[in-house]
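Pilot study result, target chain (190 residues):
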Amino acid sequence: QARFAEMGAREILMMCTAGTFSFTKMLPQRLGIKFEAKFKPLVRYLWEQLESGQIKVVNKLKLRATVQDSCYAKFLEPDYLMLPRKILEHIGVEVVEMPRSKERMVCCGIGAGFSMRSNYNTARITLSTLKRINEARKTGADLLCVYCAGCMQMLGSGSLFYPNAPQIYHLLELVQMAAGEQPLRRIDSR
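Predicted structure:
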């Protein structure tokens, strides 16, 4: 609280959905920590920029994507789960839903390591990730879109062991492509 007050920021762009949840819900509601700054999720920021024309779409992508929802997204604003889909449609990406998506979403796999029973068991985490990749593959989508860095890391790592896995793209990368930019594709680097 003191650090943010010292910085004097009025608005902070949050790249992480879990971080957004922590600073907008958990810390104020559970611990009584109040911030003068407003925390804006990246997904909300991107939608506002696209809708206002600040980010111009110069290249409609003409792709089909399925969306891996962040576990924390369902705890945020009521329309938060729809924002990535609105962004994708705006930039020319057709959304093909997995059977378990939005409020019924299934974790990317990292959550399989958090239970007391799993004790962060690598095999359970990997199996959970591979199951999710398989669900995404079955949609027939060109790519799997994520808006959570944890999901990107888990699904990207899992795709190394799954030859037919769809390409994993962060929502920000797709927006960059639609805006005519070439994103740094570092997901395949070791």
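One observation from the pilot: DSSP finds seven helices and six strands in the chain. A full batch analysis is planned for the follow-on phase.
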